[in-house]
Design brief:
Elements lengths: L1 E7 L13 E6 L10 E10 L4 H5 L9 E2 L3 E9 L13 E4 L9 H4 L20 E5 L3 E3 L6 H4 L2 H14 L6 E5 L3 H12 L3 E6 L3 H9 L4 E3 L6 H8 L5 E6 L4 H6 L4 E9 L13 H7 L3 E4 L7 H7 L11 E4 L3 H10 L5 E4 L8
Parallel strand pairs: 9-10, 9-12, 10-11, 12-13, 13-14, 15-16
Antiparallel strand pairs: 1-2, 1-4, 3-5, 3-7, 3-16, 5-6, 6-8
Length: 354
């Protein structure tokens, strides 16, 4: 079956072509039902995650060739004999969680599945015609959600996790740095929580416009405006009670605590270059401001709520651009251009309009 693979590690944006990572479509054996609690899924769409250029650049030190993709939607075509706990049947439209925690280790028992040392992941790449997952990883999509939108379940789960980590209170002032899909999904959730002075910080004009459409009160262009000055203006000189850094840019990472209010919270919700060490002034940020700063690794315990939320979110604008699987290299180039909030790969043409 056709599968998108990384065949060479490297920086996909490097002007020196010899140093770029390479993505190719390869023919690999089709995944079969591997045990009785597994379901086989015919993939409709797999979205390109913002983490994948980091992966191709060697962030996780995985062996090559390396299967790509985990934000998937599709249709169940086979159900294992003991995959009965969720009542799945052939023809169900589904999406899911690419990682399955073991359920038995210390961290799983301690409500910390994101740290499970035995989690089963990346064994069945999503940018492929078929995959097999344990039924525990799979969730039936709401009837009103298309397969095109359904591949956003995993990013929606990340936004739910970010919202959990903010511990936001109704009426708090909120800023989000980065207008990619995670930033825009989180923005919509912060609006649901009753966030005030809701601000998106984003250099791309189209994304700023989309943020206003999705409920932002203000937008800031960090290239042509002074972010800190604008932040003070929009918060009456106080700063934001919650700052969510979802851009993955080191400039955004350094700015986030500067625009936070005293006693505020900063959530780092993106991946950053492995070698980046953020300068932190302990006196000003922790002594004077008493900031709480945290990060987001994975999205444990969020998928059931994410499924419930999907019909309430504006997903169409985040799922408009798609390429057929044979054009995966072009899809990655388009993703890197930043012209679209999200780029999808259509893995089976007969599921395009389902």
């Amino acid at each position: 079956m056709k599968t998108v693979m990384c065949t060479k590690m490297g920086n996909m944006k490097d002007p020196d072509v010899s140093k770029r990572g390479v993505v190719e479509v390869m023919d690999v054996p089709e995944k079969e039902i591997i045990h009785d609690e597994t379901v086989k899924i015919k993939i409709a769409y797999c979205a390109i995650c913002g983490s994948e250029p980091h992966t191709i650049n060697g962030a996780f030190n995985r062996p090559l060739p390396m299967g790509m993709g985990h934000e998937v939607s599709g249709v169940i075509v086979e159900v294992g004999a003991k995959a009965t706990k969720k009542g799945f049947k052939v023809g169900d439209r589904v999406a899911g969680n690419f990682l399955k925690p073991c359920g038995s280790c210390y961290h799983c028992a301690n409500t910390q599945e994101q740290f499970c040392e035995f989690k089963d992941g990346f064994k069945s790449p999503g940018m492929a015609e078929y995959l097999t997952w344990h039924e525990g990883e799979v969730y039936k999509l709401p009837d009103e959600i298309s397969l095109r939108e359904g591949c956003l379940l995993e990013p929606v789960s990340v936004a739910v996790r970010i919202a959990d980590k903010t511990n936001i209170r109704i009426g708090e002032r909120v800023a989000i740095s980065g207008g990619g899909p995670i930033g825009l999904l989180t923005l919509q959730m912060m609006k649901m929580y009753g966030a005030t002075s809701l601000t998106l910080i984003e250099p791309i004009a189209q994304r700023r416009e989309l943020a206003l459409k999705m409920g932002a009160d203000y937008v800031i262009d960090p290239i042509n405006q002074n972010t800190e000055e604008e932040a003070l203006k929009y918060t009456g000189g106080l700063g934001y009670d919650v700052v969510i850094e979802a851009s993955g840019a080191v400039s955004g990472a350094a700015t986030a605590p500067q625009i936070a209010a005293r006693g505020g919270k900063v959530v780092y919700a993106a991946m950053y270059p492995n070698e980046y060490d953020m300068p932190t002034n302990l006196f000003s940020l922790f002594y004077r401001k008493e900031l709480t700063m945290t990060g987001v690794l994975l999205s444990p315990y969020t998928f059931p709520r994410a499924v419930q939320l999907m019909p309430r979110l504006q997903l169409k604008e985040l799922s408009e651009k798609a390429f057929y699987i044979d054009d995966a290299a072009e899809a990655f180039e388009t993703h890197l251009s930043g012209k679209f909030s999200k780029v999808l790969i259509l893995c089976n043409k007969d599921l395009e309009n389902k």
